[in-house]
Design brief:
With about 170 residues, the protein is of the alpha+beta class. The protein is about 20% helix and about 35% strand. The longest helix has 19 residues.
Length: about 170
C-alpha cells in the first residue's frame, strides 16, 4: 500500500512538472506565435479587431504581401495622452515601419494628441466617437512571421501580437 501511494504521488508530481515545461523546452523548437485575441468590438463599423483594452488594430489582412503597406486603423479608448507605436518581429530580426498620412515610414509612430487626429469611420454615431479614437496608418511588414506591436498611451504599454503568413503567390526572399 505504501509503495503504491509513493508511485502514484511520484507520477502525479512528474506529470505536474512536465505540464509546466514550455513547448520550447520539450521539443527544442520555438513555440507557435501567441496571437492577441480577436474581438468584434464595433461590428457596425469594422470586422474583427485584434488587441486588448485599451487598444486594438483593424487591418483586414492576416497575410503578408511583400513590400505592400497594410492600411491599418488603430482603435483606442478616447484619450488625449500621447501615443507611441512601434513593432518588432518575435521570431526573427525584423523591425516594422509605420506611416501616418504622407510622411515617410519610420520605426515609431508618435501621435501627440490622438483625440485631435481621430478620423471618423463611415457610419460612426456620436456615442462611438465620444468613446473611441480612430487613427489611420500604414504598416510595412518586411517579412511574414510573428510580429509584436508595443503601443504606449501615456505611461501605459499594451502589446498586440500578429501572426502573418505569406499570401498565396508571395515568396519569402
Amino acid at each position: 500500500m505504501n509503495m503504491s501511494w509513493f508511485l502514484l504521488s511520484f507520477s502525479l508530481a512528474a506529470a505536474g512538472c512536465l505540464a509546466s515545461i514550455s513547448p520550447t523546452t520539450v521539443t527544442g523548437r520555438p513555440s507557435p506565435c501567441q496571437q492577441s485575441p480577436t474581438q468584434n468590438l464595433l461590428p457596425e463599423l469594422f470586422g474583427p479587431m485584434v488587441g486588448i483594452r485599451p487598444v486594438w488594430l483593424v487591418d483586414g489582412s492576416a497575410t503578408w504581401r511583400g513590400d505592400e503597406p497594410v492600411k491599418t486603423m488603430w482603435v483606442l479608448l478616447r484619450t488625449s495622452a500621447a501615443v507611441r507605436i512601434e513593432g518588432r518581429q518575435l521570431d526573427g530580426p525584423g523591425v516594422l515601419k509605420l506611416r501616418q498620412g504622407d510622411g515617410p515610414p519610420a520605426e515609431m509612430l508618435v501621435i501627440a494628441n490622438p483625440a485631435n487626429q481621430s478620423v471618423i469611420p463611415g457610419g460612426a454615431p456620436p456615442d462611438i466617437m465620444r468613446a473611441y479614437v480612430f487613427l489611420s496608418s500604414n504598416v510595412f511588414y518586411p517579412s511574414p512571421g510573428c510580429w509584436e506591436f508595443t503601443v504606449r498611451i501615456g505611461e501605459e504599454a499594451t502589446r498586440i501580437v500578429r501572426d502573418l503568413k505569406p499570401a498565396a503567390g508571395f515568396e519569402v526572399k
